[in-house]
Amino acid sequence: MIPVSWRRLVPASNRQRLLASLVLNFAAKVPGIAAVFIILPLISKAIGQSSYGELLSALAVGSVCSLPFGGINAVGRRLLATAVGALDEGKQADVFVTTTCVMAVTALLGAVILVVVTGRSWSTRTFIVISLFPIASGFFNTFDNLRASYNEHYVTAAFQMVFQTIVYASVIFIGIPKGSVVLSALAIQLPNFLASAATIGVLIAERPFLRKGRITGWRGMLAPALGVTLADGTVGAQLGLSVYWLSFVGETAMAAWAGTFMRLFQSFMSPLLLILFPLTTYVSTRWGSMAPDRRLVLHKYFIVAGVGYGVIVGGLMLLGGPFYVDHMFKLKVRGDRWDVLALCIFLAAIVAQKTYTMLLYAIGEAKFVSYGTAAVSVAAVAIAAISQHWLSGIRVVDVLFLSFGLALPVMLFFGSYRYHRSDPHAPV
Q1: Helix (H, G, I), strand (E, B), or coil: what is residue 332?
Q2: Which of 114, 211, 236, 346 is most buried, by CB atoms within 10 Å?
């Protein structure tokens, strides 16, 4: 039960909670804009372009090792939302404890693999530690997802706004000591980590029964989580590994350019996620009672909105991305028009995929789209691997981005066509 002292702060209805989540999500994004336009340039200036490129590479490869978290979170959030809808506190506690334990084991394995595989590739051991930051942050993000199952993501958003303001204001007014790579990494990662940690504290205080759950049904989580992991994992791996690979083959300056470009992309991606995260959770609680015709209409809205916003983001990145990177960072090396075009097509496809699958993962396993995304990713990597015999490092990355970015929307539309031709009651 929620303590009396908290009840006045809790919106009464599900629609009010959804509205609160949307409003506070956007409010929390305001300080985040500083990270792109103020904090990153300050970091680049404080640690130098070479260390800046290696820093982004470390964070990118760490994010790759945290990709399995996405599948587990999606399944855990769906199972917990179902238990919440059924008002089953025992089931809620079991899902909470099971999801947390599975994530802890996954995080530990990811950290070990990361250290073993990349430990000798960094200029100093400091970057090994930094590469572990995204794994720690990703583990604590589990509690943001579980909180969303209660249609209460506004709590996490409020904490994010507070901690972003504190950390970013400290960086702006106090500054980063010259050459301090660790503090630079913390300036990027710490706000979300602290927000997630505060979220779990409040969640347990509100619902102490969650601590009494048992580890059960974890095997049943792995199969559906695998599909989500294959889809989002292979997409995220291409984002992270492309930056790491450029650094690995000696093109650190180009890695800094690509990594900065992708950080800008995340600022465009955030508004979409701010809307979709609470919205799809809200839809999932009502999906079972929806009429088939309404399901089909909602399905069409998501695929059209995803592709449409992807085109908008890709166009904005194409027009404004080079100006932002070149003028804000003064990097020694920058991508040419083909690099920019390939990267923008790739990022536009990611937006379309993310929009569509946010709905699918909230209501089912989405096997076709999950495995289809993985197949497209593997094919793109294979084509890029073959091209490295004739092309330079950055051109190989261009081939990877173009192969994936052009093929993925075709697969998404085909998946949507299959769903519309099938029984609306059938699993997606």
Answers
A1: coil
A2: 346
